[in-house]
Design goal:
The complex is a heterodimer of chains A (280) and B (159). By secondary structure, chain A is an alpha+beta fold. Chain A has three domains: 46 residues, Uridine Diphospho-n-acetylenolpyruvylglucosamine Reductase, domain 2 (2-Layer Sandwich); 115 residues, 2-Layer Sandwich (Uridine Diphospho-n-acetylenolpyruvylglucosamine Reductase, domain 3), CATH 3.30.465.10; 105 residues, CO dehydrogenase flavoprotein, C-terminal domain (Enolase-like, domain 1). Helix content of chain A is 34%, strand content 26%. In chain A, helix 10 runs antiparallel to helix 11 and helix 11 runs antiparallel to helix 12. Chain B is of the alpha+beta class. Helix content of chain B is 32%, strand content 17%. In chain B, strands 2-1-5-3-4 form a five-stranded mixed β-sheet, with helices on one face. In chain B, helix 2 crosses helix 5. Classes of the chains: A alpha+beta (280), B alpha+beta (159). Chains A and B meet through helix 2 and helix 6 of A and strand 4 of B. The structure holds flavin-adenine dinucleotide and FE2/S2 (inorganic) cluster (2 copies). Flavin-adenine dinucleotide (FAD) sits at the interface of chains A and B.
Chain lengths: 280, 159
């Protein structure tokens, strides 16, 4: 390990002061991504500012807008019964993250801020049209999650900002949705993943929201595929057409986990499976 | 840079000055002289370094030492009963062959303890899901699942 200073501020105000004093510092939440990167010398921070000792950052509020504190651990997310009944797709994805040891410290905010195309909570949150609340000493701004991710390890957070909350409208809980993930083994990052949300009125699909993971530089909404289903009765021909459009919208790579070809294959299959599952 | 931290380790209060870049496993195996907790991969994959912090299993190789301030930490050394007797979980691993070379064992046992403390009657599926973050190169896992089941039964009877 390279040597670093480590601070545990107890308030947001203290964070801003530290950040001003150490502009090159990194924020750390659960550290399950950051500590691995430090160990592998991908990054060599001289100062870490921990967000773990600020209680207000792990608060979950379920009012008209559901607000999830960024420091909420994946385990606490899974154990929150109200959230589970409102947004089962989020809990479904959270349960597939790592091992109990990882989930006990990994946070939802870290999952998003790490900006990996395979981040498991990103896909449900994209189809739920969640918004990220970004805060620094000057105030807060709200960013739709699909504008938050700019590339691998690159978000729209500026140097000083932290992600403080994730907001989801309660109305998003009225739709049916599902999440499918393929890993090599039970505990693994996704080779590919898909989240689908459908707003149905009897047999007609009023609105579809579809997102895919590990197949582009960022977790991706597939808007062109969604348009196809809008205000229509979904047929098997339509699903075939959707699979074709999806394959043209993604740009998977080959890496240690999988080949680009296999990733394409999975996305096609998952889109079909997810829609069939939701249509029953 | 060094910083003084206070925490409860295996039921005893500890005050120690730690270098700010050290991980929990570094201070356990280093200045605190507890060698039961193992380091395998050092990146959260193998679970050999598993300890319990505030009732939850965590990878001590990813846990900044400073973050245990004010918390309760249990390591494999904390499981021994009075008179250095092995605890029920440890005995069950010995009896069912859940321990061979022993490298993974402290981590397996800490994960098992965290599970049984919160769920005394786990199903096979729940046991497997709990141990996904603990790798074993020797046993083939069947004996480990059997060990956890035996431990659960013994603990239930002793209550
Ligand atoms: C063995 C293992 C298995 C894993 N399996 C999965 C898996 O199945 N699925 C999955 O999606 N991920 C997985 N991960 C990755 C990781 O655990 C998750 O991405 C986790 O949610 C990261 O959260 P954290 O709190 O640990 O982030 P950290 O490591 O603390 O932070 C990650 C990054 O985000 C920044 N950051 C964190 N919080 C904030 C904030 N609030 N504001 C601003 N910046 C912030 C940090 O500076 C850092 O750059 C795995 C990791 C390991 C080691
Ligand atoms: S040494 Fe910590 S998980 Fe492998
Ligand atoms: S007993 Fe040897 S690694 Fe598990």
């Amino acid at each position: 390990m390279n040597k670093f200073n480590y601070f545990n501020p107890k308030s947001l105000k203290e964070i801003w002061e530290l950040k001003e004093k150490y502009p090159d510092s990194w924020y750390i939440a659960g550290g399950t991504d950051l500590m691995v990167k430090i160990k592998n010398r991908e990054i060599k921070p001289s100062t870490l500012i921990s967000l773990r000792s600020i209680p207000e950052l792990s608060v979950i509020k379920t009012e008209d807008v559901i607000s999830i504190g960024s420091l909420t651990t994946i385990t606490d997310l899974i154990n929150h019964t109200k959230l589970a009944s409102l947004f089962p797709i989020l809990i479904q994805a959270a349960k597939m993250i790592g091992s109990p040891q990882i989930r006990n410290v990994a946070t939802i905010g870290g999952n998003l801020c790490n900006c990996s195309p395979c981040a498991d909570t990103a896909l449900p949150l994209l189809v739920l049209e969640a918004r990220a609340i970004l805060t620094n000493s000057k105030g807060s701004r709200e960013v739709p999650l699909n504008e938050f991710f700019l590339g691998p390890a690159k978000s729209c957070l500026n140097q000083t900002e932290i992600l403080t909350q994730i907001h989801i409208d309660k109305s998003s809980s009225n739709f049916q949705s599902t999440f499918l993930k393929k890993g090599r083994v039970r505990m693994d990052l996704a080779i590919a993943s898909v989240a689908v949300l459908l707003e149905m009125k009897e047999k007609t699909c009023l609105q579809a929201r579809i997102a895919a993971g590990s197949v582009a530089p960022v977790p991706l909404r597939l808007y062109q595929v969604e348009e196809l289903f809008q205000n229509s009765i979904i047929t098997s021909e339509m699903i075939k057409e959707a699979q074709k459009i999806a394959l043209n919208s993604i740009s998977p790579i080959t890496d240690v986990r999988s080949t680009d070809v296999y990733r394409r294959e999975i996305i096609g299959v998952f889109i079909k499976q997810a829609i069939q599952e939701l249509l029953g | 840079m060094k910083k003084e931290i206070n925490f409860v380790l295996n039921d005893s209060e500890v005050t120690i000055a730690v270098e700010t870049h050290k991980r929990l496993i570094d201070i356990l195996r280093g200045p605190l002289n507890l060698h039961g907790t193992r380091e395998g991969c050092g990146e959260g994959e193998c679970g050999a370094c598993t300890v319990i912090v505030d009732s939850r299993a965590v990878n001590s190789c990813l846990y900044p030492a400073i973050e245990v301030e004010g918390k309760k930490v249990i390591t494999i050394e904390g499981l021994l009963n009075r008179g250095n007797q092995l605890s029920a979980i440890q005995k069950a691993f010995v009896e069912k062959g859940g321990i061979q070379c022993g490298f993974c064992t402290p981590g397996m046992i800490m994960s098992t303890k965290a599970l049984l403390d919160s769920n005394p009657n786990p199903t096979d599926e729940e046991i497997r899901n709990t141990l996904v973050g603990n790798l074993c190169r020797c046993t083939g896992y069947v004996q480990i699942i059997d060990s956890v089941k035996l431990a659960a039964n013994t603990l239930k009877k002793s209550k």
